[in-house]
Amino acid sequence: MTAVLFDFSGTLCRVESTESWLRATLTATGMTMEEPQLLQAAAALEKAGALPGGAEPSTVPEELAGTWAGRDLDAASHRAAFTGLSLQVPLPEETLHDALYDRHMTPAAWTPYPDAAHVLGELRQRGIAVGVVSNIGWDLRPVFREHGLDAYVDAYVLSYEHGVRKPDPRLFAAACAELGVEPERTVMVGDSRVADGGAAVLGCRVHFVEHLPAHERPDALLAVLDLLPDAELPSV
């Protein structure tokens, strides 16, 4: 193998909880909610699927169906889809819905999995090319820079910049082309069998991890090193 492609959300990094997301946004905007109402709103936002990278929506309102289907194809659709879901939940001020969306794009909203830096660093030492392939509607590069992961990434291939989303093999093909590697010598690592599994169409090997909170998945990425020639499982 000469390259490893990684998904972002649920694979290398995990977004904060919906409650933390709401609390941080209230603090940043100087707004307050009584504790029972805050907890109720957080639960409703989670059920609505309003936090990108969080829980899937229990249902998508009919009026948002088209926007939701194209949410990862451009930045405007991504914001419209998720703020549309958020707007299903009453909040003290309507401006909070946009503020919530803005919050999720900040590095503070994301936590790298405990073994992410170690595995990415090991791949760099071994001369293995690394790409990030994500269905997303915003630029995640600042998240990687803030958390010290950017130095290990050779290419970012983001759906909204290419107008195509996983599992479409064209997104994985674009990543392989940018890295100058052959799909047959590439591993795709992700948490979605549907989206990330699309890489297999090109001939990539696919390895899955579970989409869990960061503290519940301390070392799942280490298995990636076992897929490489002469790999030794290091300690962290």
TrEMBL record:
Could you tell me one molecular function GO term of this UniProt entry? hydrolase activity
* InterPro entries according to UniProt: HAD-like_sf, HAD-SF_hydro_IA, HAD_sf
Q: What is this protein called?
A: HAD family hydrolase
Give the keywords, sorted.
Answer: Hydrolase
Pfam families linked to this entry: Hydrolase
Domain of life per record? Bacteria
